[in-house]
Structures are given as structure tokens and as C-alpha cells.
Amino acid sequence: MKFLTASALCCVLAAQPVQAQKAKAPSGAPNTSAILTALDAKADHYADVAKQIWGFAEVGYMEVKSTALLQSELKGAGFTIMAGVAGEPTAFVAEYGSGKPVIALLGEFDALPGLSQDATPLRNPLVAGGAGHGCGHHLFGTASTAAAIALKSWMQANHVKGTLRMIGTPAEEGGSGKVYMVRDGLFNDVDAVIAWHPGDENSIIGERTMANISGKFRFKGVAAHAAMSPERGRSALDGVEVMNVMTNYLREHIPDGTRIHYVITDGGRAPNVVPDDAEVYYYVRHVDMEVVNDVWSRVVNAAKGAAMGTGTSYELALTGSVYSLLPNETLAKVQQKMLERVGGYSMTPTERAFAELLQQSPQFTPQPLANTALIKPLTIGAAGSASTDVGDVSWVVPTVQLSAATWVPGTAAHSWQAVAAGGMSLGSKGMMVAAKTMALTGAELFQSPATIATAKAELVTRRGADFTYRTVLGTQKPPLDYRKGSVPAANK
Ligand SMILES: [Zn+2]
Predict the structure, then answer these.
(1) Which residues have their alpha-adjacent CB atom under 5 A from ion ligand 1?
(2) Is 129 left (phi over 0), alpha (psi -120 to 50) or beta?
(3) Which of 223, 116, 177, 142 is nearest to 392 (CA)?
(4) How far, in Å, from the CA of 135 to the mean position of ligand 1?
(5) Model confidence over 352-396: pLDDT tens digits?
(6) I need a labelling partner for 82 at 20 to 30 A (CA). Which of 123, 185, 280, 449 fits?
């Protein structure tokens, strides 16, 4: 997922410094300070876990070592593990406890192709053309695992009733990993979902993200010598190019706020051979899923027309479909309170030197380094520009997410600068802010059935009482090979 940088968020008041506050447990309620103490004691250990996953840099549905490491952490802490859920070999559910409420944390761990980068403030790929954690998902999965383990210990010590789950969710980046989990009913008995995302600020993610459908159009033609017998050929690349021309004309006649982007993933091999095989990979986004469905059907029509006109044929493989993120103000207020209690962090002189050099990179829009110590005020419902498969979860279960400052202020997601900071202490410090906030939020919800009931009522109001969850992915299996060929052998 790609979030806005701090500078791009509108309607947000000036951030205020918030000091970490001492726990104030209501009389009779178990004190949650032990959660913070436990996480502080294991901060170095979790920094090491995250750094290992950062080094694995495994892309969607290929996160074999990353998922094994997180599962071993959870198993060692006494969770029961169900691996390979929803037809995804690298997905898992770790569970502790029994009965209601059921509260789930989400943890991602996939990397992005082409973003390999050392933990240095200057561009330096570790593996040429290799993958890297440009969205910080190594921190995401590790923080959620840490939070789950700390929360379990607290539940055990205080005889708190309920079920705690940590759900390992692969292939967020374009693979729609969570969508298959929602479709297959993995969230049916879950009462609330707590998650986070790495970023360049400490805040609750209250924005609506964009719904998104993506897929690969593979055109088939007839190969021929491009000079001696071109009349015998039918170019699959022509099909792709004509489709793109039609789609580009479509842009004038679609609702504002729609985004269409594509890359040609296969355009033939040699100019003197009419290509019989070519492929283009499309995304369509808008904050409203209905608009995305409509524009997507028109893009598919462009493929049909292009195939007809060029004497080719095509096959469509859907790679993803996600809903927009539905905010939940009830849960967001709880998480905001916990984030303010945890507080941000200050940079050491070494971290500051790293950040100042990184902020000098080309096209970088620096933000104040002091932002890592601040907590932004809560805002709900602003339009966001990114997409995430957490969106589908948020339409079936009340869901809350925070952003924690794991990157140098001003860093855009999906950049080498995000990989760099995520591989050093700034990443792990921000990760612990997230872990603490999630664990405290979970503890609060386990003690407050009324809050969960209000959050559920809010969900019904926001999505409409007659809402039924559907995905255009239908009954298809997860595209386990959608990243095939996207990383060099040295990265595997
Ligand atoms: Zn992400």
C-alpha cells in the first residue's frame, strides 16, 4: 500500500507534541503497563526479526522464509498455528484463547520488485534489479507479531477472556491476499481488526483508500517474418497498443478521481519477428467500487475491440480487486488514545545525520525531522490515493489502522528511501510505536464489549444495511505466480 506523505494530507491541524503518559487503569481493570514493559524488553529482538525479513525481501506469495520466521515466533510464544489458509501457502492464522470477543491483528511481509537498497542514505541496490521492502511490510508483520505476543501474555496474566488472532497476510502488493481470506470466511467470526502501516508520521489512518481492480491482458497473434511475409502475421503487440490507445481516449469520459495505469509486461522479442505473444498489465482505481467496476468493464471492451481490429485474441487474468478502506471512528478514537499514550520518538545524532543526507536525494520533499516525536490529531474520511486489500476486511469487520514513523519525514512509500530507513534503527523504533499501540488497543477492546458493539453498529451504518460482500475475483484461486519472473535469481 502507498500512503500519502505527511505534507499531502489535507484538513489536518498542526501536529502537537504528545508526551508518553503513564497507564491509568480504571479501578478493577487490569493494568496494561506490563504490555509496554514487555515490548521494551524485546525491542532488540524484534529489530533483529524485522531486519532478517528485510534481508529476505520476498515478493508476494513467495514469502516462504518471512512467514516461517513469524510463525516460529508465535509458536514459541504459545500460539496455535494454522498455516496455508485460504489457498495461500504463506498465509497463516495464529490463535490464543477461546470465546468472544475475537480480535485479530493483521501482519504483512511481502516486498516489492525492483527496490533493492542497502540501509544507507544514498542509492545503493544490494541486488541489481532485486526486490526490497519499499512499503515496510517487514516491519508491519514483525510489529503485529510482537503486539500479539505481548497481548497474549497480558491476557494470560490477567485471566482475560476472548480469542486473540494474529493473521499473517501475504501478497498485499497487487496480489489481493486478504481478499481470498475474506471471501473464504476467515473473518466471519472476528469482532474487530487492528492493524497499522509504516509511514513518515505517527497518526491514525482515517482516510478512505481507493478501490482497485487489476489484471493482465495477454494477446495472441500469428508470428511471421516482419519483412519477408508481414501479411501472414498478426501482431499481438498491435493488440496491446491499440487497446492502450483506446483506454487513453477513455480518460476524458470517466468520473473525476479515476486512475488508470498500465505497463507492457511483454512486447515481443525481436523487431524482425511479428510478435505472436504480448501482454499488458492494468490497474483501475477510484474511491467508489461501483465506478471501478464500470470503468474496468470499459477497459475490457477496449481489449475486445483491439483484438477484433488487429486480428488477434486475448485472455484476461485478474490479479487483484480490492475495496476502498472503510474507516471506523469508534475504533479510531480508541487507537488515537493509545497512540498518544505511547508517544513518538526522537532521533539520535546518528539517525539525524542519516535522515539529513537522505532528505537531500533528488525529488525528495523534506518534512521536519521532529515529526517522528509528534502524534497527529485524528481525522476521518479524507480521500486517499492508494489502495490496500485491508479495504475488503474493513467492509466486513470494524477495522482500525495506525501509521507509525518508520521512514525519514517526507519519504514516499514504494521508494528506495523507504527501504533504506526501514533497514535501520528508524524503522525498528517506529515499528515499536506501532506494536505498543496495537497491543494497548487490543487490551482496551478485550475489556470493552460496548465499544465493539458501537464499532459494529457504525460499520453497518457506513456500508448500508443491505450491503453484501462480493468480489469480482469470484471463485478463482489466488494468483500464486503473479510475481513470477519479477525478481532476479540472486534475490531468491
Ligand atoms: Zn504497504
Answers:
(1) 1, 135
(2) left
(3) 177
(4) 4
(5) 999 999 999 998 999 999 999 999 999 998 888 788 999 999 999
(6) 449
